[in-house]
Structure formats: structure tokens, C-alpha cells
């Protein structure tokens, strides 16, 4: 059993948006070096993107599935209970193993469950060292696959989770820079309306299941209000005049 106070490490590893080729070399090394790799699953039990990606690089017997209320938005008590239970489980693992990796889609410091897990575990396991390994984000992958340029020159970049409300997205779209929207699938109709009202719909692009079976990348002008996959991503590029270096 390790000396928890001095040697236990919890490493949040970003494994990208789903395409296993987009895990960094450092991320793969961290997954393989850890004693166990925790992957988050919903209480329905189906395999998530993080787990599917991890299994390309580490054997199943090294993977520990921990239930999180990943899609819980309304029942605050249920969500808190799930976080507490997950933290307890990871704390148990840290008391037995020297290093535990937690695999998260995208990047562990960008809208990731890892943030809450690290906070909980830090209170349960005094002295645990928390580290993160950055991962490629969905907005980077969508930009690469669609040809949308995220930023030029002095343009700002705003990232909005549409779970915060369509009004937040509209405020960002009224600004000068590129806007990226995450988790907008269930509010696709409101997103399309905001894009049209701000004159940003023609250049915008959305994508889901990037790098996976069922990948869809389409112009936002084709949004018809029908619900999309929850983890859909939108890029609305900044307004540009088409000249090279126009924003320098």
C-alpha cells in the first residue's frame, strides 16, 4: 500500500473528442503508466467516448468504471450524491494504488467532470497530488475537419455551453469574434434562431460524433430545429473581409 500522504497521484487525462488517433503521446503514456484508469459512465451503464478511447491503449482489466450523473441537470441532490459516490470510489483506489488516471473527453480543464472529482478527492485523501494532461478539444477537431478558422490576428474567441441558455450565446454572437458553442444539441432550434438574428448563420458550421461512426459535419444554415446529439459543437467564425492579415 502506498504512502498516501506523499506518493498518491490523481491524473486527469484528456483523451480528445472521440477519435483515438487524437490522444496525445503524453496522454497515452500517462494512461499506460497509471496503476488503474478510471472512466466515467452514466448510471445506464453504456460505454462512453472516454472509455471507448482508453481501450485502444490499455487493457480492459486495468479500467475501472465509475458511475457519474453526467446528464443530470435538474436533480441537484442526485447529482451531488453521484459526485460524492464517485469521489469515494476514486479515494478507495488511491489508498491502494500509487497512481490513478481519470480519462475525460476533450481536455480535463475545459468543462470536465474531472474538476469536480479532483475537488472531492482532495478533501478525502490529504496530500494527494493532482495533475492534468491536456487533450485536444472538440472545437479544434471540428475546425480541422470543416476548414473553419478559429481565430485570426486580434480576434477574440468565446466558448459558450448552451446549457447556460440561448441568451448567453446570443450575447456572444453579437460580439466581434469567433463563437464556439458546446452541448447545444437539445437547444438546436434556439441556436439556429440566435444565429439568424445576429446574421451569423451562413458562415457557421456544426458537427457531432467527430472521428466516429455517424460523424456529421454540416452548415449551420441547414439547422431545421430538430434535436441533435447532446455533444454537438458549433463554430461561428468571426466576421472577416477576406483579406490576408485583415485582423492583424
Largest sheet: 5 strands, parallel
Stretches with pLDDT under 50, minimum 5 residues: 1-5
Number of strands: 10
N- and C-termini, Cα separation: 56 Å
Task: Name the overall outline.
Answer: elongated
Order of helices and strands: HEHEHEHEHEHEHEHEEE
Structural features, described:
It is built from eight helices and ten strands. The chain is α/β, with parallel strands linked by helices and 248 residues long. It has a five-stranded parallel beta sheet with strand order 3-2-4-1-5, with helices on both faces. Strand 8 and strand 9 (216-219) form a beta hairpin. The longest helix is centred in the middle third of the chain and has 21 residues, at 76-96.
Give the SSE layout.
Layout: H1 4-7, E1 9-14, H2 25-33, E2 36-41, H3 49-54, E3 63-67, H4 76-96, E4 99-104, H5 113-124, E5 129-133, H6 138-146, E6 157-161, H7 166-173, E7 178-182, H8 188-197, E8 205-208, E9 216-219, E10 233-236
Parallel strand pairs: 1-4, 1-5, 2-3, 2-4, 6-7
Antiparallel strand pairs: 7-10, 8-9, 8-10
Helix pairs in contact: 4-5, 7-8
What are the key terms here?
248 residues; 5-stranded mixed β-sheet; alpha/beta; 5-stranded parallel β-sheet
Summarize the structure.
The protein is 32% helix and 20% strand. It contains eight helices and ten strands. α3 links the parallel β2 and β3 (63-67).
Amino acid at each position: 500500500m502506498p504512502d498516501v500522504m506523499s506518493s498518491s497521484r490523481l491524473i486527469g487525462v484528456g483523451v480528445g473528442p472521440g477519435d483515438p488517433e487524437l490522444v496525445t503521446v503524453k496522454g497515452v503514456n500517462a494512461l499506460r503508466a497509471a496503476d488503474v484508469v478510471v472512466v466515467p459512465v452514466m448510471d445506464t451503464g453504456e460505454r462512453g467516448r472516454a472509455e471507448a478511447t482508453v481501450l485502444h491503449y490499455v487493457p480492459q482489466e486495468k479500467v475501472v468504471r465509475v458511475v457519474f450523473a453526467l446528464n443530470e441537470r435538474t436533480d441537484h441532490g442526485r447529482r451531488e450524491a453521484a459526485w460524492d459516490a464517485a469521489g469515494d470510489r476514486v479515494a478507495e483506489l488511491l489508498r491502494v494504488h500509487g497512481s490513478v488516471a481519470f480519462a475525460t473527453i476533450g481536455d480535463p480543464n475545459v468543462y470536465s467532470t474531472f474538476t469536480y472529482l479532483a475537488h472531492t478527492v482532495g478533501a478525502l485523501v490529504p496530500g494527494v497530488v493532482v495533475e492534468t494532461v491536456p487533450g485536444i478539444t472538440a472545437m479544434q477537431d471540428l475546425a480541422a475537419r470543416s476548414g473553419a478558422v478559429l481565430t485570426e490576428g486580434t480576434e477574440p474567441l468565446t466558448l459558450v455551453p448552451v446549457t447556460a441558455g440561448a441568451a448567453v450565446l446570443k450575447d456572444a454572437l453579437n460580439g466581434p469574434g469567433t463563437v464556439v458553442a458546446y452541448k447545444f444539441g437539445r437547444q438546436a432550434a434556439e441556436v439556429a434562431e440566435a444565429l439568424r438574428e445576429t446574421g451569423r448563420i451562413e458562415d457557421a458550421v456544426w458537427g457531432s460524433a467527430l472521428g466516429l461512426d455517424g460523424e456529421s459535419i454540416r452548415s449551420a444554415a441547414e439547422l431545421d430545429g430538430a434535436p441533435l446529439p447532446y455533444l454537438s459543437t458549433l463554430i461561428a467564425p468571426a466576421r472577416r473581409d477576406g483579406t490576408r492579415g485583415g485582423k492583424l
